[in-house]
Amino acid sequence: MTVRTEPITFSMAFNLKARSVLHAGAIDVALNCDTNLFVDPCLLADSRNREFAKCARSAYEKRFSTIVDLLSQSQVEGDFAWRNAERLFVFPEAPFTHLGYSGGLSGSGSGARIRASLMRNSREAIRIGIRNPDLFLVLALLEEGVGADRISDMVTRIIQPCLGRFTSKIADELGVPCKTYRIDGDDYRLPKNPLARSDEPVILVPNDIVRDLPTASDWDSVASAARETEEIRARVSAQIGEIWAVKTRKDKDQIRRTLLSNRQAFEEFLAFLLQNTGEPYDVQEDHLGEIYPADLRRDLLQQVPRDSANLSGRQLNPAEVATVVQQIIEYFSVLIENNGLWELLYDDDRVTPKREKAAQRLFFAVAAAYCEANRLDLSPEADAGCGPVDFKMSQGSLSKVIVEIKKSTNSKLVDAYESQLGAYIGAERPYASHYVVLDVGRLTPSKKAGLNQLRNSELQKGAPAPTLWVIDAMPKQSASHR
Predict the structure, then answer these.
(1) How many CB atoms within 10 Å of residue 327?
(2) In 3D, which of 332, 338, 343, 303 has the Cα closest to residue 479?
(3) CB of 432 within 8 A of CB of 401?
(4) CB-based burial label for 460 (10 Å; 0-12, 13-18, 19+)
């Protein structure tokens, strides 16, 4: 989905601290866009919230065990058992969690096709003796058109009652008011989403059952892990070893046929998936920058210098908007270089840089806090909402300033200055533009020279050239160790 405003998280909407939501065990999702995390069925049983874990795993197993029983009784497609199984195989897009992307297993022709294919292949697996309800995990992995979003929607729909009870308890713990909503014939006490256009609830998800991309839907990572792990390679048969090496979409049919003709192969494949689940996405470290830094945003609001207070409360001309944006970048630079904000650009080891999106989110939070603190009627806009961010600060149609944030490790660092930002300038026709490079390492002399050469070349031609900023974001020792 596309959102052209600041992400507003659950904690921001209900005036909570983000760390309180985290400590309660939930994800502090944005309520006006989707957070690209996905529920992984392999993680349900290991959730720290044991009541939820028991409920969710039981609901998952009950649904698919029933489907297994019905398909084992079906003689031909369309008979009574088949139709009953098909009704249990309808998984619309999971609403109100604000996770993932759209796209369920129903509601379209492709959904019906995928559902029919999964049911046929499930029946074949049952016929060779596979009764484990997790067999659907294997088949979903091998089904063209089924990815993390569809698997997540499928599982979320199944465990919806468990999520409803989890949300009610978390809301009570945090002091968030709830009201009764009827969803799919059941009543739930849930918080009302204050940002929704209609009367919609919020369903919270435990923060230890999600991934950025579930192993069960990422064929490349499964194949790679099996090839690279000696222990796994020694344990599985030569036949399975050959299957790991094949990962293209067109070969999935052959892999599926092999598994559905060999019970041992199928069971070893399933065991590999379940035994190599790995850890859930660390929402606290947030390597990918999926969680908006709500607490930082709140703290900055009290610390931001009122450099632009004289501009508040009135329409700004293009030059004034450009001045404000420059002040924001300068303040961002000071926070990174002198006030320790560089730490938020790295994982907990203070060495490994987070993804570029985390840096972009950080700048967004600083820009939004600066504008609010100075009561500036500017719109920091993100073209992809909760996705990759390209900033456009604006007031009116003429007062537009573009800011592009890049890490120095970006392989397209020099090319993006010329092509990517150039395209934005051509489309948006901004009053000014800025290209901000966060130096987290590997900013080679050739990269620096390439950027400066491009900028100077554009200026010599009289063309608009983005202002180039290089911010020192390298890890720094604390004052006591310098």
Answers:
(1) 16
(2) 338
(3) yes
(4) exposed
Q: What is the DSSP secondary-structure string of 86-109?
A: HHHT--PPPPSS-BS-S--SSSSH
Point out which residues pair with 30 in neighbouring strands.
Answer: 9
The tokens describing 15, both together, are: 């005036």
Q: Are strands 432-439 and 399-407 parallel, antiparallel or unpaired?
A: parallel
Nearest to 137 by CA among 125, 37, 96, 129: 125
> Between vectors from CA 194 to CA 151 and to CA 15, what angle results, nearest 5°?
100
For 329-370, what is each residue's pLDDT tens digit?
999 999 999 999 999 999 999 999 999 989 999 999 999 999
Q: How far, in Å, CA of 377 to CA of 131, rounded?
A: 61
What are 126-160's pLDDT values in tens digits? 999 999 999 988 888 778 777 777 888 889 999 99
- Contact in structure between 135 and 63 (CB atoms under 8 Å): no
DSSP assignment of 136-156? HHHHHHTSTT--HHHHHHHHH
pLDDT tens readout for residues 436-464? 999 999 999 999 999 999 999 989 988 88
Tell me the pTM: 0.87
H-helix or E-strand containing 210? Answer: strand 210-211
| Domain definitions of the chain by residue range | 10-275, 294-481
Q: Is 404 in contact with 390 (CB distance < 8 Å)?
A: yes
Reference 60, options 29, 15, 91, 99; nearest CA is 91
Q: Which residue has the tokens 């931001």?
A: 304
What sign has the CA pseudo-torsion 176, 45, 347, 363? negative
DSSP H or E run through 214: none
Gap between the Cα atoms of 378 and 313, Å rounded: 11
How far apart CA 316 and CA 422 sit, in angstroms, is 25
Q: Which strand (E) or helix (H) includes residue 368?
A: helix 356-373
Mean pLDDT computed over every residue of the chain? 85
Rounded Cα distance between 177 and 26, Å, is: 16
Q: CA-to-CA distance for 398 and 316, rounded, in angstroms?
A: 10
Dist CA 353 CA 409 (whole Å) = 9
Decide: 376 and 393 in contact? Cβ < 8 Å.
Answer: no
Looking only at the bridges linking them, the beta strands covering 179-183 and 379-382 are: unpaired
Which residue type, as a one-letter code, is found at position 343? Answer: E
